[in-house]
Design a protein that fits this description.
Elements (H helix, E strand, L loop, with lengths): L1 E10 L2 E11 L4 E5 L6 H9 L6 E6 L2 E2 L5 H7 L1 E4 L11 H12 L12 H6 L1 H5 L10 H14 L4 E5 L7 H16 L4 E5 L3 H7 L2 E6 L2 E7 L5 H5 L5
Parallel strand pairs: 3-8, 3-9, 6-7, 7-8
Antiparallel strand pairs: 1-2, 1-4, 4-5, 9-10
Helix pairs in contact: 3-6
């Protein structure tokens, strides 16, 4: 569904990604692991088109999209939840979600004016706080809003950058259950950047480990002990 072949990326003269190979199939959950500063966020931005490709290829459904703008990739069905959530703090929860509805319209002949019910089924707190400004929500509620806004666009691939960062354990559990449903029941592929190994292992089918901008290890989570992978994450 999504394939990266020898992808490199740089900020000016500073190269961050080196010959990255990675693939995701429909409905699959993939964890992207590694210490801070190894290039995980840059890789997500490069997939989404926020950061340009220096060399290599990114293809989606066998179509090369390496040079396509971010909004075109969103139209294809890619959705991105950045680190730090990226919600609009001065807009209400409802207005934030409706931004996702606006992005969806026109794709595959879809014409939507309302927020899909499944968003509220996954995150009931959003329905309770529709009229509250995004900036007045707790960190965990903001994360649920950011994921909900991405899901409004009915993505085929969901890119998540550290969704558990700074969030209380009870909310982490809710997000974990929601993402399991998104992957296994809705058939949405997930690429998850995560430091919390237990969270990643709870629903990821495969994993990739990055070090200094390169993929150094990958495999099926069912066939690998997470503690063995954890040595790549320890300082």
């Amino acid at each position: 569904m999504l394939k990266l072949e020898k992808v490199s990326s740089a900020y000016g003269a500073s190269q961050v990604l080196w010959d990255v190979d990675l693939d995701i199939t429909q409905g699959e959950a993939v964890a992207l692991l590694g210490r801070n500063g190894v290039g995980k966020t840059t890789l997500l931005k490069t997939i989404m088109g926020v950061q340009s490709v220096k060399s290599g290829f990114i293809s989606y459904d066998n179509v090369v999209i390496s040079k396509h703008a971010a909004h075109r990739r969103a139209q294809y069905g890619l959705a991105y939840v950045p680190q730090g959530r990226g919600i609009f703090p001065q807009l209400t929860v409802e207005e934030n979600l409706l931004m996702g509805v606006a992005a969806l319209n026109g794709r595959d002949g879809i014409s939507e004016k309302t927020i899909p019910d499944y968003v509220f089924e996954l995150f009931p707190v959003l329905k309770e706080m529709l009229k509250r400004k995004g900036g007045n929500l707790s960190g965990g509620q903001q994360q649920q809003l950011a994921i909900g806004r991405a899901l409004v666009t009915r993505p085929k691939i969901l890119l998540l950058d550290e969704p558990t960062e700074g969030i209380q354990p009870s909310i982490v559990m809710q997000i974990e259950e929601a993402l399991k449903h998104v992957s296994k029941e809705l058939g949405v592929a997930i690429l998850l950047v995560e430091q919390y190994l237990d969270f990643a292992w709870s629903f990821a089918d495969r994993y990739f480990v990055m070090q200094r901008g390169r993929i150094i290890d990958h495999g099926a989570t069912a066939e690998k002990d997470k503690d063995e992978v954890g040595r790549f994450l320890s300082v």
